[in-house]
Design goal:
heterodimer, A: mainly beta, six-stranded mixed β-sheet, globular, B: mainly beta, four-stranded antiparallel β-sheet, 11 strands
């Protein structure tokens, strides 16, 4: 069965520190991969996506993610977090076409001053 | 990118009633998807809606409970029927735009009392 795993339910990072959020997937073939952010009471905002090609993907708000086929991973990174980055982050995958998205359970990011 | 508008943004409904949620897109899209996000949880795909055909439902979701319409390439509705408090969730519409699954509406926050 297709699945997306975000091993960390909560992560606490100091403002200005670097961030890495983990995501692993289990799919029959390499899926399309996405990272979304959801602030309290807000909808989902797409940070970045990977379809093919360069395995290091740049997104909005200074985020990047690296696709590693050997590890079935698509980890999200940011070199220096800001207090406004506190939110829920979702990794998602799709087989494409009419497949829809399979979401991980999310990682709640807390920023310490 | 596609702009997606959902109505209503939130509602409080009595148990046993039904609510229809509208999703309007500013461009023609092939596929539209409906998701549910239960309180404190991740997103789960309810169904995929193609214009001119019956919606395809995921395991655990049935047409009698969540009837979907897709009358044209820019509009879809999801009805939550015979509601119970367990249906209290955020319901989100998503679209495939130019072959890319990516964009979400702001969601409809439903509370059933």
């Amino acid at each position: 069965a297709q699945s997306v795993t975000q091993p960390d339910i909560h992560i606490t990072v100091s403002e200005g520190a670097s961030l890495e959020l983990r995501c692993n997937y289990s799919y029959g073939a390499t899926p399309y991969l996405f990272w979304y952010v959801q602030s309290p009471g807000q909808g989902l905002q797409l940070l970045l996506k990977y379809f093919s090609g360069d395995t290091l993907v740049q997104g909005i708000k200074g985020f990047e993610a690296e696709f590693k086929r050997s590890q079935s991973s698509f980890n999200l990174r940011k070199p220096s977090v800001h207090w406004s980055d506190a939110a829920e982050y979702f990794c998602a995958a799709s087989g494409g076409g009419a497949d829809g998205l399979t979401f991980g359970k999310g990682t709640h990011l807390i920023i310490q001053p | 990118s596609a702009v997606i508008s959902q109505k209503p943004s939130r509602d409080i409904c009595q148990r046993g009633t039904s609510l229809t949620i509208q999703c309007q897109v500013d461009s023609q899209v092939t596929m539209m998807f409906w998701y549910r996000q239960q309180p404190g949880q991740s997103l789960t795909l309810i169904a995929t809606a193609n214009q001119g055909s019956e919606a395809t439902y995921e395991s655990g979701f049935v047409i009698d409970k969540f009837p979907i319409s897709r009358p044209n390439l820019t509009f879809s509705t999801l009805t939550v029927s015979n509601m119970s408090p367990e249906d209290s969730s955020i319901y989100l519409c998503s679209v495939e735009d130019r072959g890319q699954l990516a964009f979400f509406g702001q969601g409809t926050r439903l509370t059933v009392v």
